[in-house]
Each structure stands twice: as C-alpha cells, then as structure tokens.
C-alpha cells in the first residue's frame, strides 16, 4: 500500500485533484507533512513540471506559500513554468500571491529570475506576461551580471531578443541594451563573440545609435563585424602614429623615436594575433586587414613623393588648369 506522501506525489504528477482532496480529507496536514518528508520539492513543483493547470490552481489556493519555495535544484514553480512556456500556469502563479513584483524578481539558481528562464527558452508569451505584471523585472541581473538580453543572445533566441528590446523601448529602459555583464560584455560584444549571424535589426527609435547600429554589425556576423572593428582600430592607431612622426620631424633622437613608434605597431599587431579564430581563412584575412590598415596612412602620406605619385599629381594639376581655362573662355564675365 502506498504511503500518503507517495500518493500525494502521484496525484501531483497526474494532476488528480480528486485524489488531492481525498488525501486532505484523510489528513488535513498532508501538505505540511509532505514538506517535512520531502523538503527538496513540493507538490507545486511537481504539478508545474507536469503542466497540470487545474491541479496547480488548487495547490496555489490551498498552500500559496508553495509558490515562493525553491526545490533542490534552485528553481521556483514560476521559474519552471517560465522555462516550459506554460503561460496559463505562469498567470496562476503570479495571481496566487499578493506580492506579484516580489515573486517575479525572486532570484534562484545562479541569481536568475523567471524572465531569465523565459529569455533562455525563447518563450515570448511568457516574457509578455512577466513584464506586464512587473516591468522592473527587465532590470534583473544574474550572479554574473547578465540581463535577459544577454541570455537571449547567448542561447540563440532571436525572437525573444527582439521582443525584449521592444518592451524595453516601450517602458523607457533603453539604457539596459548597453549594460555590460561582470566581464564588461554588452549584448553586441556577446553577439560577435558567439558568432551570431541572425541577430535581428531593431530600426525603431529611440535606439538608432545604440542597439540599431550594434545589431546591424552583429547581423553581418564575425565574417565582417569583428574585421570591421579590427580595421578601424588598426587604422586609427597607425594614423595617430603617423601624425606623431610628422609633428616630431624636427625633434632630436629621430632614430630612437622611430624605433619606439614601430615597436608599438609591432606589439599591437602581435597582440591582435591572440584573438580567437579557429579558421585559417580568417587568420589570413586578419593579416591582410592589419597589413592594409598599417600601410594605408604611410602610403597616403608618402605617395606624392614617389615618381608615379608626382606624375599623377602633375596630371591632376594640369587637368584643373585646363578646366579653369575652358571656363574662362566660355564665361569670361565670371572671372
């Protein structure tokens, strides 16, 4: 014969509300006894995982404090329902407590809240319910400083990401898009680092210069986005050093100065080689980009001094003179 606690577990697993009432009739303290005998998980956890809506409603009515309890794995019933995407159970759990905002923002395993699990699982309707019930939950951070946006990108949930951004714009929390985690990684950094090629473009205001531009770059994927950043950064460094060379042309110790400047370029180029890349084609592309970025400022500066550069410059000057003379002949009154 099954024990009463075992019968309660089976009733929770099967969603048998009749058996639940029979057990309570036999022992009015059965729910309290279950918590003592099996403290690692209450009947509401079991029923939520089994997605037994009617049973969940009854348990919440009989024992509302179960809603806030963690199981042995660090999950609350709301976390489980959010991850599974059972919208109706999420609504029941939220309505089953008088402190809705507190419930939505209660942290469990790894400092995650219900919206984090909804974002990780890509449950858009659950995200809508959670933010509608408690808009502050979009500010929730995990123990490593990740927002729900970080997790949506990390777990490749692009529609959830788009939905979260739309909500963030709607409630006026745009700055969250630029929040970094404990390592300083923003959503864009994470998208590029994890090679996300399908990050959606969010064109609507008021985020055109934050998430808009960032998502466009992420949309290009690491085949373009990281290389664009590398080229721009390398070109900026080389151009700055070129200006330094020009401005210090009359200074003493020219040889030592040039050695220092070229050493800086060498050190920068060597450090960039340490960036993660598992494909030989990308390593080759990176070397080409670095070489082009390093050479371009010097070429533009010294090109006019070379023979072909002088010839092109003379050709251009003669061309401009011919154009001016032609205009003088046709429109003498303007000159």
UniProtKB/TrEMBL annotation:
It comes from the Eukaryota. SUPFAM superfamilies: Ankyrin repeat. Keywords: ANK repeat, Membrane, Transmembrane, Transmembrane helix. The chain crosses the membrane at residues 231-249, 256-272, 284-303. ANK repeats lie at residues 110-132. InterPro entries: Ankyrin_rpt, Ankyrin_rpt-contain_sf. Signal peptide: none annotated. The keyword Membrane applies. PANTHER family: ANKYRIN REPEAT-CONTAINING PROTEIN BDA1-LIKE, HOMEOBOX PROTEIN WARIAI. This is Uncharacterized protein. It comes from Cannabis sativa (Hemp).
């Amino acid at each position: 014969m099954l024990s009463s606690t075992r019968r309660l577990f089976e009733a929770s697993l099967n969603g048998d509300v009749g058996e639940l009432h029979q057990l309570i009739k036999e022992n009015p303290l059965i729910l309290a006894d279950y918590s003592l005998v099996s403290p690692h998980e209450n009947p509401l956890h079991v029923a939520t995982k089994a997605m037994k809506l009617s049973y969940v409603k009854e348990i919440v009515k009989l024992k509302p404090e179960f809603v806030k309890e963690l199981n042995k794995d660090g999950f609350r019933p709301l976390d489980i329902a959010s991850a599974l995407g059972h919208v109706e159970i999420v609504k029941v759990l939220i309505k089953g407590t008088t402190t809705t905002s507190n419930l939505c923002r209660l942290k469990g395993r790894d400092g995650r809240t219900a919206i984090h699990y909804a974002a990780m699982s890509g449950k858009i309707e659950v995200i809508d319910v959670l933010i509608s019930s408690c808009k502050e939950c979009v500010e929730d951070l995990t123990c490593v400083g990740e927002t729900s946006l970080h997790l949506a990108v990390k777990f490749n949930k692009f529609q959830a990401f788009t939905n979260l951004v739309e909500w963030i714009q709607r409630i006026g929390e745009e700055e969250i898009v630029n929040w970094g985690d404990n390592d300083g990684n923003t959503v864009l950094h994470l998208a590029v680092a994890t090679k996300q090629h399908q990050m959606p473009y969010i064109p609507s205001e008021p985020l055109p210069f934050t998430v808009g531009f960032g998502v466009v770059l992420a949309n290009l994927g690491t085949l373009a986005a990281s290389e664009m950043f590398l080229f721009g950064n390398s070109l900026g460094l080389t151009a700055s050093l070129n200006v330094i060379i020009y401005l210090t042309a009359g200074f003493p110790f020219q040889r030592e100065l040039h050695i220092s400047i070229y050493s800086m370029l060498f050190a920068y180029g060597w450090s960039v080689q340490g960036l993660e890349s598992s494909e030989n084609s990308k390593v080759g592309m990176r070397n080409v980009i670095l070489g082009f970025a390093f050479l371009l400022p010097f070429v533009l500066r010294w090109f006019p001094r070379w023979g072909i550069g002088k010839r092109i410059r003379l050709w251009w000057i003669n061309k401009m003179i011919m154009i001016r003379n032609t205009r003088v002949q046709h429109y003498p009154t303007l000159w």
